[in-house]
Design goal:
- The chain is mostly helical.
- Helices cover about 75% and strands about 0% of the residues.
- It is built from 23 helices and no strands.
Length: about 375
């Protein structure tokens, strides 16, 4: 039943009644009619619009519209003045701070919330998301286990599934994702988990079918874009994968694995300069990550820069003795020395390893790429 027409009549009959306007605004926002709610606020008398309850709803409009800075501007003064601080206000303020890249500020705002019932569930879920971003996986899982009630159960289970996956508990993550999807077939984190597990199992079509709807619903969702890009790589649709991974990197510029995936995609297209730039972006995030050193070694090896490649391989294997990129670089150097059987052993060993957490790479492409690039590299060295 649509309550909005009746509530509009009530609000219009008494424009100075804040309770009537609040009820109307809540009904409009529940239906997702943000612009109509904003217009009602603009039309309200100044003294009504200045009330804390109105400012809270104005901030809710801004939050739904993606204007997170305005949310903070509207809610921070109320949080600092209110005693006690409403739990819903703490949640919306913290959510905006989190999305603006201020997780510590968000946790500080949540610390003011004295929440019960559905408010407590919302606070727990947001805090778990913040801890997840901070890689406090064990704490986030424990908090989700303590989350009260049945409300938003699909979201709780989906988020828990993603945490379990990143904690290395793939089987448990799969079971939790299935339970979340039984409650809500479109639950974001659960679909993300299923897509990732399908990718690791090299079930290309299944993985892509999971990631594509997520990207359609949330075009800036970096992790879904990363999964879709890797799925397209696994299918062999490299140009399409490149475009998706470039988008993923633009939305997850602080995620090393995304730069690695983009670099490998660029390698698959023979773009050594682009791959080096992407590995350099990953290196700027963490100078002690072995796989990044291995990627840079591979670029040097493909260019025929034997000494530079050898030094980078040593650094990479010292940091990560099982690093894939460094071993691919070793295979290229072995080919340069005519030791084809030893190079092939390395490639065969890499092809037999599980894909879990790794960029999907066609087993023989490095050697094919070497043959394509080497004449060009030789000509360049001759000038």
């Amino acid at each position: 039943m649509n309550r909005v027409p009746g509530l509009e009549m009530l609000a219009d009959s008494d424009p100075s009644n804040p309770d009537a306007l609040c009820e109307l605004l809540d009904a409009l926002l529940l239906q997702g009619e943000v612009e109509r709610a904003r217009q009602r606020l603009i039309q309200a008398p100044k003294e009504v619009r200045a009330l804390p309850g109105m400012r809270f709803r104005e901030a809710r409009c801004a939050l739904m519209a993606g204007d997170y800075a305005q949310v903070v501007d509207l809610l921070m003064p109320i949080r600092q003045a209110a005693q006690p601080v409403p739990a819903g206000l703490c949640h919306d303020l913290a959510w905006a701070q989190f999305l603006l890249g201020d997780p510590e500020g968000a946790l500080h705002s949540l610390s003011f919330a004295q929440a019960t019932g559905t408010d407590a569930i919302a606070i727990h879920l947001l805090k778990a998301r913040i801890w997840y971003q901070q890689q406090r996986l064990v704490e986030a899982l424990a908090l989700l286990d303590e989350t009260p009630g049945e409300d938003r159960e699909a979201e709780r289970r989906g988020l828990r599934a993603l945490l379990l996956l990143d904690h290395g508990q793939a089987a448990e993550a799969s079971r939790e994702a299935e339970q979340a999807l039984a409650l809500d077939p479109t639950q974001y984190e659960a679909c993300l988990v299923n897509g990732t597990l399908a990718l690791w199992a090299r079930q290309t079509d299944v993985a892509i079918s999971q990631f594509q709807p997520l990207v359609a619903r949330q075009p800036t969702a970096g992790r879904a874009l990363l999964g879709l890009g890797e799925g397209l790589m696994l299918r062999g649709d490299i140009p399409a994968a490149l475009g998706v991974l470039e988008r993923a990197a633009s939305h997850m510029s602080g995620h090393i694995g995304t730069w690695h995936a983009l670099a490998w995609c660029q390698l698959l297209l023979g773009n050594l300069d682009g791959a080096q730039a992407s590995f350099d972006r990953a290196f700027a995030l963490d100078r002690a990550f072995g796989e990044t050193h291995g990627g840079r070694a591979l670029v040097h090896a493909l260019r025929g820069e034997k000494a530079l490649a050898g030094e980078a391989i040593k650094r990479a294997l010292r940091l990560d003795p099982q690093g894939r990129s460094a071993r691919y670089a070793q295979s290229v150097l072995l080919l340069d020395e005519g030791r084809e059987s030893e190079a092939q052993q390395i490639v065969d060993a890499l092809a037999s390893e599980p894909l879990q957490g790794q960029v999907p790479i066609p087993a023989g492409f490095v050697h094919t790429l070497r043959e394509l690039l080497r004449p060009r590299a030789g000509n360049m060295r001759g000038h």
